[in-house]
Amino acid sequence: MATAALSVSDLSKTYRTGLLGRSTVDALNGVSLDVEQGEIFGLLGPNGAGKTTLVKILLGLVHPSDGTAELFGTPARQPGARDRIGFLPENHRFPGFLTAEKTLHLYGQLADVPSRTRATRVPDLLQRVGLANRADTKVKTFSKGMLQRLGLAQALLNDPDLLFLDEPTSGVDPVGRRAIRDLVLEMRDNGATVFLNSHLLSEVEKVCSRIAILRDGEVVREGKIQELTAVERVYDLVTTPISESLRDTTGLEPSPHDAPSAPDLESYRAHAEDRPALNAILDHLRSADVEIESITPLRRSLEDYFIDVVDEEQSAP
Predict the structure, then answer these.
(1) Which domains are seen in the chain, by residue range?
(2) Which pLDDT tens digit goes with each residue over 141-154?
(3) Helices marked H in the chain
């Protein structure tokens, strides 16, 4: 089995505050996570949940109070662990007097990317993030969205195997968000791992396969998005029209979704206690010569699920 791209076990971080450091704040409390190679993983949580502290520990910028953090099996505190990663921080800053091209060459030098590699990689990255026509433009004239795209190019200079993205689409217009999303998916398809931290849950839902939700320094939910957001035992069916008597027999209800575009199809909602119960409904429909176009488990949006989880944790005694 391949080594996890990222692994933390029983990770805790306590900060001392107040006069003479007599008070303490637990930023992380026993966090354990594994992110496999080649997946896009989303870290979610309200402000103050501990997301930034966790990322800083993984980047070797903060030392944990307890527990372990590893990147590709190497302790995160070791400088060599960072050779295979790229990082786009939130609210990054670039020297305004530099052009986009010179900015990438500067940061490439800082990352020990050879000049011969930079000669081809810099223009390629500018093209991939949609800034090829701005290569000779000074950064101080860039909009927030353009700075975000330049920041992403900077994070990719060393062709990382693991990419940390902190609010990558913040301030980016829909076209730019689409470009960034496509680039992230391309990286995954090429075998890279992406660790995404964002409050824009609609973007997380489009690219991430798994997520974890932090609350008060603890992981309160973790898993695949499709499984976490599924509404248990509720399904949307698209079929040929069903008589009222047959709907009563099977317990089907009209679906609140828009009617299918095909004139000979209708949408219904089924409630089934388990898989055999669902199949019994379908068998009953088929025996009445109803044709079934599609069956879709009902799902909530990731935003609705996130809010429910956070509210639940806040109201817990």
Answers:
(1) 6-226 (3.40.50.300), 230-299 (3.30.70)
(2) 999 889 999 999 99
(3) 51-58, 100-110, 115-128, 144-155, 174-189, 201-207, 225-228, 244-250, 275-287, 302-315
